[in-house]
Amino acid sequence: MSSLVLAEKSSRQSVRPQWRDFWELGKPRVVLVMLVCALVGMVLATPVLPDIGRVIYATLGIAMAAMGAAAFNHLLDQRLDRLMLRTSKRPLAQGRIPPWQAALYASLLSLLGLSLLWLEVNPLTSVLTAAALLGYALIYTRFLKHATPQNITIGGLAGAAPPLLGWTAITNRVEADALLLVLIIFAWTPPHFWALAIHKQDEYRRAGVPMLPITHGEGFTRLQIWLYAWLTVVMTLMPYVSGMSGLVYLLLIVPLNIRFMQINWRVWRATSAQAPIQAFWFSIRYILYCFAALLLDHCLPVF
């Protein structure tokens, strides 16, 4: 009997939430990419260096709100996460964190982030961040993800918000150049996620998520990736065309786009079974390099 009690106690201890589990709920790697885009938006919003205090407050507020939204995503998707190998080891899927604790954690993070933005940055950025949070955590995760194969296209608008949030944090205005940064991420999102959807389509099918490869076939999805990749290229050239960026940016983005299209051509032509997942991982670096090029051009106004 004592051995059973010890085993039960050990089992409870093994599933006791650890700080790493709560950290994982916030999807820190995804949030890091978002923060890079937000920081670029802050720097591009002004011809001089932005106020460092405002940058710190804005970054912290956006980070907390984004991690709160990610935790809500884990909470709402826990049933699906158990069905997919890619997400089956998440804290909620494995029962390492009770749902009520995840809900409290997500709520506190979100409220703290939005309050910090409202009090220390400006109400506009707080309201826009709240809209992005609701768009991702509720509209996309709860409804769009299960309702339409265009879930990524429509829901991608929330994920494209970070550069706009960074921009408004500094200027307190929604401006055309900020919206252009949003459109770059908006165009990039479908080929990024549809490449993953092709690679993981059996898991999405088992989970009952109507991703494009499942509802319209793999061939149609590969074509859409190719077309959206071209749209992404067009959008990344617009900062130079509009005068937002100069020759430094153009010289960096052209070879990056050539490489981007080479990789997506392999996806379209189905040259190998690994082409979609290779495109997915490269696309993460691509969007980071794109925003790094914008930043470098802004900081080196030599042309």
User: Sheet bearing the most strands, described?
Assistant: none
Beta strands, count: 0
Distance between termini?
Answer: 79 Å
Catalogue the unreliable spans. Answer: 1-14
What string, H for helix and E for strand, traces the elements in order? HHHHHHHHHHHHHHH
Supply the number of helical segments.
15
Radius of gyration: 21 Å
**Coarse shape:** flat
Please state roughly what percent of the residues sit in beta strands, choosing from under 5%, 5-15%, 15-25%, 25-35%, 35-45% or over 45%: under 5%
Structural class: mainly alpha
Q: pLDDT average, as an integer?
A: 88
Share of helical residues: over 70%
Q: Oligomeric form of this entry?
A: single chain
How does this model look, in words?
The chain is an all-alpha fold. Helices cover 80% and strands 0% of the residues. Helix 3 crosses helix 9 (162-171) and helix 4 (52-76) runs antiparallel to helix 6 (99-120). The chain is flat. Residues 1-14 have low confidence and may be disordered.
Summary?
This protein has 303 residues and is mostly helical.
Keywords:
single chain, 303 residues, mainly alpha, disordered N terminus
Give the secondary structure arrangement, pairings included.
Layout: H1 2-14, H2 19-25, H3 28-44, H4 52-76, H5 78-83, H6 99-120, H7 123-147, H8 151-159, H9 162-171, H10 176-199, H11 201-207, H12 212-216, H13 218-241, H14 247-269, H15 275-299
Helix pairs in contact: 3-4, 3-9, 3-15, 4-6, 4-7, 4-9, 6-7, 7-8, 7-9, 8-10, 9-10, 10-13, 10-15, 13-14, 14-15
